[in-house]
Amino acid sequence: MIRIEKAVVTSKQSSRLPPGVPPRMTAARVLDAVIHRGRSLKTELNAALPLLPDTRDRALAEAICFTALRRRPCYEAALAHWLQKPLGRGNGVLNALLYVGFAQLDTMNLPAHAALSATVDTARALGFPRQAGLVNALLRRAQRERFPSSDPSAAWPEWLRTRVLADWPQQADSLFSTSLAQAPVWLRINRRQGSRDDYAQKLRAAGIHAVSIPELPDGLRLDTPVAITLLPGFAEGAVSIQDGSAQQVADALRPPPGAHVLDACAAPGGKAAHLLERDSTLRLTVLDIDARRLVRVRDTFERLRLPTTAQMLAADATDLPVWWDGEAFDAILLDAPCSATGVVRRQPDILLHRRPADLDALLNLQARLLDALWRTLKPEGTLVYTTCSILKAENEIQATAFLARTPDAQAEPLGPAFGCAAGPGRQRFTGESGMDGFFYARFRKLTGIIAHHV
Predict the structure, then answer these.
(1) Which ranges of the chain have pLDDT less than 70?
(2) 329 sits in which H/E element
(3) How far apart (Å, rounded) are the C-alpha atoms in residues 159 and 354?
(4) Which of 65, 74, 265, 388 is catalytic?
(5) For the domain bounded by 244-445, which CATH number is listed?
(6) Are 327 and 299 in contact (CB under 8 A)?
(7) pTM of the model
(8) Which CATH number fits domain 185-241: 3.40.630.30, 3.30.70.1170, 2.60.120.200, 2.40.50.100?
């Protein structure tokens, strides 16, 4: 096993690093934490990127991390073929740095000389001078031989791959490949400040091409990502970043004007904000189990210049005595915790971290949330259940089981704009019209029927 020296770079040394080293050093450390220590990609990036003062370095580090995670099985196979002995568990940062180098030479297609030089410099800066030659040799071999094409399904753990194949045998290949592609950027236009078409004109004036589709009255798609600082009026709340599938939740719920609405499991607040952008007269209660995440919801509302009258509660949604005052809601949105298998292209570390036991726990929690929140809904009120999952167990099977044990619940149809028919709801597949994978089911509470569910 190669002996790795302790990687420590003081702030004084960091200020003298060669150009191109800081973003690659950041990417290597983030990938090491995600791949070898089970950390969240989003959490690691949120902590690491602000330490890079140059926005171009931040963008490069983030792009490298996403590319390396999407192509991880291919890079693992290459290293297994090229190395006589594996690097071993103790060499996580070096392994991650090789992924950083591979990503630049592979699908990112960065200039080879710059990528090689900067990555080798990064090995030294990380405290691995003895391994710089190995890094250089492996990157040059990758440059010569390139990487073989790999089966996109190889990125999925076997147990999860088996579930997707069983659930969607006709769509599985497309789901696997699309989930490893870069997702487009979706914008949600704040209709309190202007229309979608007006904002599209502002984008054109700024040299930014956007695409609109009929299903999203407030949405525009950017197939080429741009920095949020280049979006006209972003700081003033004219626009938000939100996937098209998530935007459709407001259309599925469609509460009447002035309705008393609950957004359960609400953080970070994009769907609640969308509801208020459409109708500021709603009496909105925003609920989330994590008080810290509610701070983000409040910040979102403030940027969008939305009414501050929404009630924000930090509590477990299933523990009604703790948070519910007994006044029933006209409409409830339950965007339930789920496997997130419909957003793998935005969170590729999901495929590293998800375990079968996680899914069992999520299925139980989803059922408990449905049963508890149903008790807080008025007769003739509406509950919309959504997930960003492509698994039937969390979606149509979960929704069907809820109807079976809830005699005063009736499924209300949603149209093909929400995806294909899936039991009592609709399933959007990852990549359809550029959107994330999503499930929607809409239930109405009947009157005159005695409910017997717990």
Answers:
(1) 1-15, 88-90, 450-454
(2) strand 329-335
(3) 10
(4) 388
(5) 3.40.50.150
(6) no
(7) 0.91
(8) 3.30.70.1170
